[in-house]
């Protein structure tokens, strides 16, 4: 399963992902942003679990299982650009704004905003096709608690 999903995510021209693959891709992106600063903090892990639980209507256990699969995908996926492009192609703009809010929630979860996280988030929002103004509003939403 892992290798098939990775091949779909990292294809030179990613196709629209099935719902389950899109869930895994989004969760893996949340994991990637959390791991960017070299500290995969328990607060970030808990925030990822809460985000995917709420976004996808999962139980706590299902959210943890999804995150575990996504951690494996994130560790194997070397290319953030194609990885993120697959999400862009699968998710409408308004929902991508929600993804950016979720990414900011993860960045802010440990109470420390690292330069590496900011840089990756700027890059990812660009790859997702989100305007700078909408990204700033998404950060403000995350700072207010979603």
What topology emerges from the helices and strands here?
Elements: H1 2-9, H2 19-35, H3 42-56, H4 60-76, H5 80-90, H6 93-109, H7 115-127, H8 132-143
Helix pairs in contact: 2-3, 2-4, 2-5, 2-6, 3-4, 3-6, 6-7, 6-8
Describe the model.
The chain is mainly α and 146 residues long. It has a single domain (2-143), classed as Orthogonal Bundle (TerB-like). Helix content is 75%, strand content 0%. The protein has eight helices and no strands. It has helices at 2-9, 19-35, 42-56, 60-76, 80-90, 93-109, 115-127, 132-143. Helix 3 (42-56) runs antiparallel to helix 6 and helix 6 (93-109) runs antiparallel to helix 7. The protein is globular, with a radius of gyration of 14 Å. The mean pLDDT is 84. Residues 23-140 form the Co-chaperone DjlA N-terminal domain. Pfam families: TerB.
Short description:
The protein is mainly alpha-helical.
Largest sheet: none
Number of strands: 0
β-strand percent reads: under 5%
Uncertain runs: none
Mean pLDDT: 84
| Elements, N to C (H/E) | HHHHHHHH
Structural class: mainly alpha
User: Could you please say which CATH topology applies here?
Assistant: TerB-like
The CATH superfamily title = TerB-like
Helix-residue proportion: over 70%
CATH architecture: Orthogonal Bundle
